[in-house]
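[job 0412] stage=fold_complex status=start
inputs:
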Amino acid sequence: MAVAVVLLSGAPFHGGCCRHKVFLSLLGPLLSNSKLYSSYRRPGAEPKKKLSWQNADFSFKKSIDHLKTQLSLLTKETQDYLQGPGGHPLSQHVLEQTRVLWQFRSQEDLNKWVISSDVEIGGKSKVYIKLGRNNQAALLYGTLNTEVPRDGETKYSGYCSMRSRPAVGSFNRKKYYDWSNFNSLYLRVRGDGRPWMVNIYTDPYFSHQKDDLYSYFMFTRGGPYWEEIKIPFSKFFFSSRGRVQDNQHPVWLDKASFLTLGLTIGDKVDGPFQLEIDFIGLLNDRAHREEFAYETYDKN
Amino acid sequence: FTTSLLLGTTMTISSNHWIMAWAGLEINTLAILPMISKSHHPRAIEAATKYFLTQATASALLLFSSMINAWQTGQWDITQLTNPTSCLILTSAIAMKLGLVPFHFWFPEVLQGAPLTTGLLLSTLMKFPPITLLYMTSPSLNPTVLTFMAILSTALGGWMGLNQTQIRKILAFSSISHLGWMTIIISYNPKLTLLNFYLYALMTTATFLTLNSTKASKLSTLMTTWTKAPALNVALLLTLLSMAGLPPMTGFLPKFVIIQELTMHDMA
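[job 0412] stage=fold_complex status=done
writing structure:
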């Protein structure tokens, strides 16, 4: 309050034309739509985008086409619902032991994934994805650079990742899958010997849990031969905002809604990396009897 | 917690005053919350939160209804609910407590997040006080609203349970459907509602205890239980057929007498 009085009283010394600048400097943080915690933009972050309502396209023809697409999706969903759970007969749901979730045979399959690296925090790693030889696999390659961006805030750098886009149904509604029949993740990959981290993000109900992640490691062998890696879901450990939590619990897959799978490399070794992925699927390994690999602390 | 549940249930079903009935419902709500969230899994916490919010809202509506009635009529007796606004608000409060359509969305999620024994309590013991309140106030409630909710509950409970693969969700939709049957007859012959409820509680208890002993929570697990406990599997089969209302099982009896009663009142 005292500062405001001093500034306002000091305005005549600078001329009346500067008085509105005084007001703006006082009220600027309130009037701008910058976030409350910091307006500092990291070197790798994109410049401030337009507001969401400024991006809206009010074209009538496009909206009609969009509506037609969504209605056709809704019709297909209704037909799938009449067939059985997940659009398949109940017998298939009960008897299936394997399921292919993602396979990489065309550009459309690649478009279901998003690649990112530490460029978004100002780092220098590079990551690319393309279809492999004969369109039989996806090739994720790039260069890892652990040089920390000099912004005074960041302490670590050097990661590249590939995440699946969450599945949406008609009218952008979340799609719910039941993966409880399976107990392992099955990947057919050909790596270069570098370790990767497989992350599962389950869309939580509460926003407090939006940083929760279930992770496990995938060690690739390198060499000319493909390898089939099975990672049981019981091995995935729970972390939040990158920190492994003391209270561990297994990942529930009965309502795998908006679930995204991610592969991340961050082994603190500078240099090129390469990973070929044929397909990613689910497996019901009847020999695997473990429910959860880590200790859960029973309270009360 | 079990003692608190019994205390809350006894308080509600034996009370004449609305405040005592409300207090019993609140004790029930608070006592079941730690049982739902016992495993501390995020999904269990989510289920407990959803349960608390809906039940607290319903309790508030119930208290609001009784307060309006007390303001208009000057008395707090449960059986003397005469104000039409109070009756409407009470109907929505009870529907929310029970999980009748259109206030049913919380029930499958809560049952899925809770363990099987807690699910049993949610489906049987927690339904008893609201059913009792419905029974005591049934002469005052609007039959059209009740019939509408009952028909929707029976239909939606059946349709939405069709493509489910998790057993707890299937039993939740079964519960919604049975509640529809209980609600439709309450305006004409409330004793049939109680008969339906007792038989439903018996069948549901048998189902949940069987599933608990075989630790089956999804359909694929249920497919292989016959190798572990064949006799129990056969008993489960008969119990489920009874819940479906197939003669000559016991579950056919309430459905038959309800349809008979509705026919007598030109409703079916």
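[job 0412] summary: The interface with chain B takes residues 81, 84-85, 90, 93-94, 178, 180-181, 204-206, 209, 212, 247, 249, 252, 254-255, 299-300 of chain A (CB under 8 Å).
[job 0412] exit 0
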